[in-house]
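Here is the promised in-class demo. Please do not try to memorize the tokens; focus on the logic of going from shape to residues.
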């Protein structure tokens, strides 16, 4: 009888323990490092949500110091994790972390100390030609000559704002030593999170390395890049102790685990996985469309400028118009190819402020516009000379005349013009090999205008007969949320 009672108690305790363990949440954390500060999003599974997850915590902090301060980046991440701990309690339930950073923001780090190299330029996010001064400008011009000599015509890495241009400029200014390696913003945070668990290599991802010259189609560093770096007096550039990250991962792919000391200081589990990162604009796509969208799914950003990203089966590129392809991680079929293609126009909502439309006026006049009717006005609402996409024309002039007496008619014409430029953007992508758009998730300030969304849907559908176009406001647009979805993607 005593044995039976003991056995009974043991069984009850086992059941309670099992329930307790199964009830523990599984969290996934995403960070986004922007120009003004950093944000964290923590999510957990929710079957009622369309993408399968709900956000349980989000917070942002401004930089404690300059944007160019790598110490400020890591300080912000620690501050955000401590805030999450106060709100959620135990962070031992965070299973994975993903970091998104501003595209082409990078630095030279010391792989032994995991700190920024003090001998290199303090500028991370700049143009090597237009923002250089003195010896820096001279080095930038020399770096550009080296890139133009080796990089294929129209290659994305030829950009003067790219990470390759910056690395070469810094190396020409002052030769790199054996311990120095280029780190993108997200690489630097991931490296410091994985301290002790992985001390040999700096690891990066497809998205951040595109503008460094990584061949996203073959998934390797190309021969021309090796020659380019050597021409800039960087010896053994593609090696375990070279000047660029050796191991390149898919965004969302496990790279390692949080270091034991770091885990202890931040309240994380030492089994917490750090996955491949991404860039801010790509993370925003994941936030709006999820990590498993159908081909043709697009995200249009209606901010100061108009930007389009769309999921395609085909790789497309037109550097003259800023069209390039990021390799899209396919978590259900890792060996298949998917591409995130897109371009960005100089047209956008900034023109509405230049024309002095207030928020109240926009709301009132939009309610009076019928999205089913066409405006007879024909504009190209640039705020200054020059366009990049859907046409590359540095001399293209703004067209904002004639100005009707009715502000309602003027707004109708402007919004229709921006809608048509978006439509032309999708047409150009389709001509290059992208699919017809299907669902178009919209983010940015313009997404809040429901009348405009209906107008855009009708105007775009008029040129894609036979395709069902559905324009919707995105529920989630924060890049940190997209990074959190990437953190969770391989744990489904």
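The designed amino acids, position by position:
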């Amino acid at each position: 009888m005593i044995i039976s009672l003991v056995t009974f108690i043991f069984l009850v305790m086992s059941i309670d323990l099992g329930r307790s363990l199964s009830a523990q949440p599984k969290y996934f954390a995403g960070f986004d490092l922007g120009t003004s500060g950093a944000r964290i999003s923590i999510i957990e599974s929710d079957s009622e949500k369309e993408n399968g997850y709900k956000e349980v915590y989000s917070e942002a902090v401004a930089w404690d110091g300059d944007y160019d301060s790598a110490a400020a980046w890591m300080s912000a991440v620690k501050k955000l994790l401590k805030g999450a701990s106060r709100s959620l309690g135990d962070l031992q339930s965070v299973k994975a972390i993903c970091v998104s950073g501003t595209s082409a923001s990078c630095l030279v780090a010391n792989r032994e100390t995991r700190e920024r190299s003090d001998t290199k330029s303090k500028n991370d996010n700049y143009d090597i030609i237009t923002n250089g001064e003195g010896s820096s400008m001279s080095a930038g011009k020399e770096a550009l000559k080296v890139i133009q000599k080796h990089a294929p015509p129209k290659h994305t890495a030829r950009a003067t704002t790219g990470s390759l241009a910056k690395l070469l400029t810094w190396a020409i200014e002052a030769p790199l030593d054996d311990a120095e390696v280029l780190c993108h913003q997200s690489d630097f945070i991931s490296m410091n999170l994985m301290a002790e668990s992985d001390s040999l290599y700096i690891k990066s991802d497809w998205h951040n390395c595109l503008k460094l010259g990584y061949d996203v189609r073959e998934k390797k560093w190309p021969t021309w890049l090796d020659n380019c770096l050597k021409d800039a007096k960087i010896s053994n550039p593609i090696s375990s102790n070279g000047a660029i990250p050796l191991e390149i991962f898919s965004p969302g792919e496990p790279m390692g685990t949080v270091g034991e000391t770091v885990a202890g200081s931040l309240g994380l589990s030492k089994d917490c996985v750090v996955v491949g990162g991404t860039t801010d604009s790509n993370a925003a796509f994941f936030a709006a469309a999820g990590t498993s969208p159908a081909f043709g799914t697009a995200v249009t950003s209606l901010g100061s400028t108009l930007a389009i990203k769309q999921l395609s089966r085909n790789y497309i590129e037109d550097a003259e118009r800023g069209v390039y392809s990021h390799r899209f991680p396919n978590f259900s079929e890792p060996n298949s190819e998917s591409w995130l293609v897109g371009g960005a126009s100089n047209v956008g909502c900034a023109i509405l402020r230049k024309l002095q439309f207030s928020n109240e006026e926009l709301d009132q006049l939009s309610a009076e516009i019928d999205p089913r009717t066409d405006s007879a006005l024909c504009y190209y609402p640039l705020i200054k000379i020059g366009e990049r996409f859907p046409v590359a024309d540095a001399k293209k002039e703004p067209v904002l005349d004639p100005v009707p007496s009715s502000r309602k008619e003027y707004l109708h014409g402007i919004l229709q013009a921006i809608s048509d430029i978006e439509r032309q953007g999708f047409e150009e992508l389709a001509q290059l090999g992208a699919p017809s758009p299907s669902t178009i998730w919209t983010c940015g300030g313009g997404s809040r205008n429901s009348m405009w969304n209906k107008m855009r849907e009708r105007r775009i559908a008029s040129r894609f007969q036979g395709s069902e176009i559905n324009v919707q406001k995105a529920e989630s647009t924060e890049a940190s949320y997209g990074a959190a979805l990437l953190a969770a993607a391989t744990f489904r």
